[in-house]
Amino acid sequence: MITTLTSREFNQDASRAKKAAEDGPVIITDRGRPAHVLLSIEAYQRLTGEGGSIVDLLAMPEGAEVAFEPPRADGLSRPADLS
Fold first, then answer.
1. CATH number, domain containing residue 55
2. What pTM was computed for the model?
C-alpha cells in the first residue's frame, strides 16, 4: 500500500511515516509534487539487490533451508606446465 504525505505532515509526524513505510512506500510531496520516497530497509535492499553476503545468509537460523549450489568454476584454472 502506498501512502502519500506532505512535507509538513512528514515533519510533524515522522513516526507515522515510519510506521506507514512498514506496509509500503511513503511518497513525500513538496508543493503538491512527489519529492521523496521513504522505504523500509528491507524494501530498499530488495529494490537494490543488496542483501547480506552468502556467509551472512547461511549463518541465519533459516539459512539451513536455503538451497545453495555454487556454479562450477570451469575454465578458471588450467593444469600446470611442469616441463
1. 3.40.1620.10
2. 0.59
Of residues 11, 38, 36, 6, the one with CA closest to residue 22: 38
> CA nearest 40: which of 57, 25, 61?
25
How many domains would you assign to the chain? 1
65 vs 17 pLDDT, higher one = 17
81 or 55: which leads in pLDDT: 81
pLDDT tens for residues 38-80? Answer: 999 988 888 887 766 667 666 766 656 667 777 777 777 777 7
Give the range of the structural domain holding residue 48, as residue numbers without chain letter.
3-63
Is there a domain that residue 77 lies in? no
Between the alpha carbon of residue 32 and those of residues 2, 7, 8, 14, 46, the distances in Å are 16, 9, 11, 18, 28
Residue at 29 is within a domain: yes
